[in-house]
């Protein structure tokens, strides 16, 4: 498929108003997207677990208007929000040719997240995917009739133009984005991982330890830009291809020890890219490292398959098989909680994707 396949050519412009509502999850990458080209095309493929409890709920009410500029209001967690508007404005500008009705309506966007935003738990992924899905449902309200597959693909295509990782939030349980030699994929949208998944990875758990709930100093968007001219960029992009290939085999064989190696190495490589860019920056906090060291110690002493991953932030995602749930939560409550801001953490697990409400 090409960009052209997603252009909406005709719709019923007589619809006066309506309302649509979606819940869309965040996701956590196992192989990380870090570096992009023009038009939100990733420099390397990535794969993520779709989450279940970390999600955005967005309701969009649309009303016909006469003026031709974009018009929308954002209400975040019940209050009028100006801070989220520029990202949505940029999103609308990027997707206009694919959803031309954007200038015909005023949009009232009421949204909330179940987790802190802008702190490396991919609120841009759940937020932008929820909005993209609402626009797709409006497209349907305007008389456009699509097969299920196309609906999800276009939603993912639009979401990508809001935030790259958002294209991996439409479906579950594992989603791949970015052309590669190992799996079915596209640079334009995310697709469900087409390989076998061993039962060891069913219902995988993710406890997100909130080391720092504040907004991070450097946004992911800026971080991606710093991969231009980065001294290790070429090697990193090629490593991501290799890691995705290895992960495909691991997901099928159920080899948890090998899974841990890839996932932890990906997280540390992501942060190594930040530390070696110019300007360089560090998003981990001292407690991030304390937690990592304690996870390693616990794994060794308990013959556990617990591991960590990080997004672009200080918070730690603790990944583990369902079978280890009770012993890992005992460990978190007795040891790791001390390193979390106000003792807060989120219990999550792999989920099935977005839902219309
Ligand atoms: N519910 C929402 N609706 C619309 N936009 C949202 C929503 N939640 C967050 N955003 C947008 O996403 C931005 C945060 O994304 P950013 O990439 O900086 O941080 P993040 O949440 O840590 O994500 P990531 O882990 O992908 O870096 C917010 O400033 C806002 O513009
Ligand atoms: C570290 C990451 O979470 C980076 C996410 O980057 P974004 O998707 O937030 O960036 P933009 O495309 O600029 O919106 C890794 C990942 O999710 O793959």
UniProtKB/TrEMBL annotation:
Protein name: diphosphomevalonate decarboxylase
PANTHER family: DIPHOSPHOMEVALONATE DECARBOXYLASE (PTHR10977)
Domain of life per record: Bacteria
Residues in coiled coil: none
Family matches, as Pfam families: MDD_C (PF18376), MVD-like_N (PF22700)
Entry's transmembrane regions: none
Similarity comment: Belongs to the diphosphomevalonate decarboxylase family.
Record keywords: ATP-binding, Lipid biosynthesis, Lipid metabolism, Lyase, Nucleotide-binding
Signal sequence region: none
Enzyme Commission number(s) of this protein: 4.1.1.33
Keyword set includes Glycosyltransferase: no
Domain Mvd1 C-terminal: 208-336
NCBIfam families attached to this UniProt entry: mevDPdecarb (TIGR01240)
Domain spans labelled Diphosphomevalonate decarboxylase-like N-terminal: 25-186
Gene Ontology terms, MF aspect: diphosphomevalonate decarboxylase activity
Organism of this sequence: Winogradskyella vincentii
